[in-house]
Structure formats: C-alpha cells, structure tokens
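User: Structure tokens for this complex, please. No commentary.
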Amino acid sequence: QKEVEQDPGPLSVPEGAIVSLNCTYSNSAFQYFMWYRQYSRKGPELLMYTYSSGNKEDGRFTAQVDKSSKYISLFIRDSQPSDSATYLCAMTFEGDDKIIFGKGTRLHILP
Amino acid sequence: DTEVTQTPKHLVMGMTNKKSLKCEQHMGHRAMYWYKQKAKKPPELMFVYSYEKLSINESVPSRFSPECPNSSLLNLHLHALQPEDSALYLCASSLGHSNQPQHFGDGTRLSIL
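Assistant:
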C-alpha cells in the first residue's frame, strides 16, 4: 500500500504560536519525504525534503522524520499570517517517478 | 516566482476548441510532469516525461495529449474537453527520473464552458 494519512484541518492558531503538522504512512519503502506549501491559486512550493530519519531545519521550519513510527512532522516556529496556506506532505519510493501526497492540511494563522 | 513557468495562467474554452498549455524550466531537470488538481484535493499525476520520452501515462483520456519538444519544454494539447476537466493544471520538474523532489509551476486554471 502507498497511503499517506494527513488531517485536512482546518487548523487555526494565533500568530506567534508553534505549529505542528503531521502525516503518517504505512509503507516502510518510502525514501524521500517532502513538505509542500500551497497558497490559494498558486502551485505547490517545495518547502523542505529529507532522505532519512531525523530533523532538518531551515529558518523557522523544522522537518522531522521518524521511520520507526512511520510518522513525519513539520514544525513552524513564530508563526505569521503569511504562513496561512495548505501544507501537503509527500513521499516517494526508490525508482518510482510518482509522488504520493497526503490530502493537505489547511492552516490559518490568526493575527 | 517559481522556476517552472506555465502559460497561460488562465484559460476558458468551449468543448469544441483546441488549445495548448505550455511549461518551461531552465533548471537542467530531465524529468517533467503534468498534474491535474481539483479544489481542496492534492495534485493527481497525469503524465511523466523522462529524458524526453513518455514514461508514465496514468490512463488519461485521449482528449489530453502531451508533448515534450526538448528537455526544457512540455506541452499539453487539449481537444474536445468536458466540463469536468475544469481544474488547475500543474507542471513539475525534477532532476532525474528517480524519486527526487519535484518543483511545481503555478499552474494554468482551466475552465470548460
């Protein structure tokens, strides 16, 4: 199975809060783990990707992969209204051109 | 601005029209993709070109016809579309034909009358 579970939200949090977005997956063969951000009427923007377990940090964003639990997370620190968007987790298999997307979580940062 | 450029941004066409969507990337990527995205849904894969050869066709109706003139360009030719084909059409590219992350354009919003 190549399924990815993601809560569609919406998730509303006050400005400045830490946001935690999560996905679970069932197939341990997934290798690349990605987070995309999509604003209304725009294409998905690749935020972060990682090939292995552990954490990867980029500014206010931290991506975390736990392969033993089949769980990935995206943390946003000091959230801003401009972070309001849909966040899609995505995964790929070795040797496969297809991305398996989660359904996306709609995030609202309240000023 | 994204590094994958799609034109036009918006397109309205009748069911008997023929039109084309265009996509261009200058990142040296060798794999290019077409996706269809409906509102509040994730993108759905339509076609994959790897090194300018069609490698995946996700059983898309023949009224959609892809073309890859060279490694930087990707077209999607449209003919006799149906109202349910109204959607955001996204182009993406990746470094090679393996499982590497894909970079998306901002899409063409297509409306079929």
